[in-house]
Structures are given as C-alpha cells and as structure tokens.
Task: structure prediction
Amino acid sequence: MFKEEFNRKIETVSLALEKYFEKADNYQKTIYDAMAYSLFAGGKRIRPVLALACAELFDSGEKVLPFACSLEMIHTYSLIHDDLPCMDNDDLRRGKPTNHKVYGEAMAVLAGDALLTKAFEISVKFSELSPEQTLREIEVLATAGGTEGMIGGQVIDIESEGKRVDAKTLDALHLNKTGALIIAAAKLGAIAGGASEDDIKNLSEYAKNLGLAFQIKDDILDVEGDSDILGKMTGVDEINEKTTFVSLYGLEKSKQMLDEYTKKAKANLKPYGKKAEFLEELADYLLKRKN
Amino acid sequence: MFKEEFNRKIETVSLALEKYFEKADNYQKTIYDAMAYSLFAGGKRIRPVLALACAELFDSGEKVLPFACSLEMIHTYSLIHDDLPCMDNDDLRRGKPTNHKVYGEAMAVLAGDALLTKAFEISVKFSELSPEQTLREIEVLATAGGTEGMIGGQVIDIESEGKRVDAKTLDALHLNKTGALIIAAAKLGAIAGGASEDDIKNLSEYAKNLGLAFQIKDDILDVEGDSDILGKMTGVDEINEKTTFVSLYGLEKSKQMLDEYTKKAKANLKPYGKKAEFLEELADYLLKRKN
Result:
C-alpha cells in the first residue's frame, strides 16, 4: 500500500517535472541534455514527494507541484556541483557516471547553475497560488538553498574536512546541508495547502527529525551498506576522514538515534491522525531503506 | 556632470548592496567573505546603474534597488564561475586575484551558487513593489540569467571555442552572454517604475543596442587596450582562438559598428527627451571607455 502510494506520488512529480522542463532549441541543446541527465537520473524524489504529501494534508496538493519540482532542481544542482573534482570528486552517482564525467566540467558547472536558475523561473511561470503565497514559496526555496541553509551546510562540511568536529557542529552541518531542503519540502507543501502557521511549524519539526534520521541512515549505510544496491562506493567517509554520526557515536548508538528521530518525527504527526498515514510510513521507509 | 551623476548612482547602488548583503554568523563567515570579495571588487556597476536610470525615467527609482542589486549579484556569480580553471581559467579580474585563487575552487563554486541564490532571496525580502510586480521582476531575473539568456550564451561560447563561427552565431552568443543581463537591467527599471508595455519594449531595445556596442568595445579593447588600465591581459581572444567582432569584421569595421549601435541606442531614447540625458551619455561613455 505505502509503496504503491509512494510510486503514484513519484509519478505525479515526474510528470510535472517533464511538463515544466520544456524543450530546448538548437543553441541550448547541450545544456538541456546535461540538466536532464541529472534531473532524470532516477533520484528517489523524496523532497518533492514529501512536499506533495504535506500539501495533501490540507487539499488536493496539486498546487505545490511547481515548487516541489523547483526544490528537486535545487537538490539536483547541488549534487552536480558536489560531485565536481574540486568538491567531492565523485565519478559515480546512482550507479551512473557523474555529470562532469559525461559533459565535462565546464558544462557541469553551467548545468548546475542553470537548474538553480530554472527553479526560480518555473516557480513564477507555473504557480497557481496567489502572488503573496508564490512569493512566500520562493522565499522558502531561496533561504533553504542558500547561505543560511544548504550552502551554509556545505561550507561547514568543507571546513570540517580532515578534522574531528564536535556534536554541535555535526548537527549544524546536517541540519543545513541535507536538513534545510527537507524542511523546505514540508514548508512548501504546507504553505501551498493553505495551512495555519502552527501547522507549518509542526510539519517543519516533523521534517527536521526526518532529515536527521535520513542523514544518520546515510552514515550507517556508508559503513554497513551494499555498494551494488547503493550505486556508489561504501567506506568513503572513513577514507575521507569525515566526522559522521557513526564515527562520533559508534554504530549502535547511531542506530538508536535513528530510531529516536524516526519516533519523534512520527509523534509530530499526531494532530493529523489517519490523514498523515503516508508521512508516518515514509519515516519508517527511510529508516529501513537499503539505498 | 555625467561622471558625477554616474558616481552618485554607483554610490546609491553600493549603499543598497551593503544594506541587503547582511552580516554572517560564525559558520558562514568564509562564504560571506568569498561572496563579498567579488561583489565589492570594484565592478563598474553598469547593470544596476542602468536599472536605476531607467526606473528614474518614470519615478524616484528607489524601488528598483533590490532587483538592481540582485542583477549585480547574478552578474558577479557568473564572473566567479567563468574564471574557474575548468572554464576560462583566469587568475586576474579587475587587477585582483580571482575568487578561486584566494578562496580555493570549492569555495568559489559555492560563493557563486550562494550569490545566485541570494539574488532571489533579497528580491523577495526587500521588494517594495506589489506582489504582482515583484513576481514579474523575479521572472525577468531568472529568464535573463538562465538557459534562454546568459547561461545559453555561455554554452554557445564554450561550444564555439577553437572554431570559426558565423556572424549569426556571434550575435546570438553576445545577445545572450552579455546582452541578456543588460536588457534585463532596463526591463527591471522600467517595470519598477511602472512603465507602459511600450516603454518596457523601447528601453529593452535601447539596452540591446547598448549591450552589443559594449561587447564590440570589449573585443576592440582586447586588441588595442592597455592591460594596466584594463586590469587584465590583452590579446587573450587571439590566443584562445576566439571569434570576436574584430576577428570576424576587422578593426575598422568593428569601430564603425560600435558607432552605429551607439547611435541606434541613443535613437531609442528620443521619446524621453531631456529626461533620458543620462542614458544617452551612458552610451557615449561606454563607447569611449578605456577599461
């Protein structure tokens, strides 16, 4: 049941992405190819699905789609830039060669820039929300993707390399680097659904816990996961001397924390009862995932 | 008189940039330093000054400032990414070491990403226009900076390297790579000033001609300019086997074209009479500039 509902939502998001991501003419063919290569590379679509599910708590959910897709574009651009030789220097992503391996570094930089720019373009062009709500969605996207969000987290990440960092810094790193866009997903959905300020806050809290659980699971998978299923190498964090939840707390304690954050996330959903079933199951799904 | 007015406008823009570009906390210090390094590196501020001057044709002009500054941030991010080793591999910009030479490549990529994201953040946060007008400004920024604008031009540029390109491609390259943001400046100003659709179109046409003249002048300076005054090496286009207006048409014909586009730009200003004096003199100033 959950898996079917998840797939239905992924399908809804994919159709929207294809609709918003229009064709290119002659001159822009290469850049559109490079953008599409990463945008349609089989990502799990967790952020836009989360946005859609949060919006559906309040209405049909459809109106969040341009912003859910924008968020996925921002997530995708960050992966392209993250994989660059001057950043993480990754050759593989989701089992496929990374963007710069296929299109070259210059085009990969531009494809990332273009996806980030396109996110704001489609937010304006395809919004069916009121101008006021649309601007609020755009502010959520820009803040979550920027220096006080994802990019801020990447900076902490770069500056922590090869160092032992403390628990507070590790939390700040992940709350920003991965957490910011996951929290933004919940906010985008709630705002598009016309939720109250209390509901927006409550769902942001759910997403914050979900995001931390997600990151802890990632760190555990890097130690215990199967690289064939993951589509990327394991043991990378140790080689790169990265401080992770596992290196800081150990494997057992990390698994315990994963359970706790998942429980906290589910507790945030209490006010929505049966309607929040999908969001509850999403937390369990992310807890148990193998990739 | 013109120079004083130009400096007054630069000052207005600089004060606004400093206001919108707020302080960073602990974690984000490095990225804000990297962003500020390029944003306050002594750029000529032609785009935001143009936006301000176009807005002033219709009203006080103040309301365009958040968008004029956003445009300057987009311009600045594009220079940081353009200078990267995988792109133009430039060590100097405006006589100073390029961003990645000072902060490293990873931070330079992120500083560019952050400036692009910040552009949209401040557009929402500091707008004093109506929500509808604000959205229109954001759409102008995103379209001009994206695949159908500046990035599209950069793609043509990369794909033309080491090739002889024809006049049509060279026009498309520059109309997008440098033209798109200059045209956007005029549009942002006109929209913020509450101009009619005819005036928006007319000022866009002025900016289009100004942008082509600007690029031709750039190509001429690369051949005839003084590298000390320019703050960068000359003769680079020939070394890189780049097709330029000079390589395609020769120096004399290029100078003639520069004159013609400048005249055309000034003709577009006829309807505004004396009020457009600054914009007229701006065209002459760009024609005669030495850097």
Remarks:
- The longest strand of chain A covers residues 92-93.
- Chain A has 16 helices and two strands.
- Chain A touches chain B through 55 residues (CB under 8 Å).
- Strands of chain A lie at 92-93, 96-97.
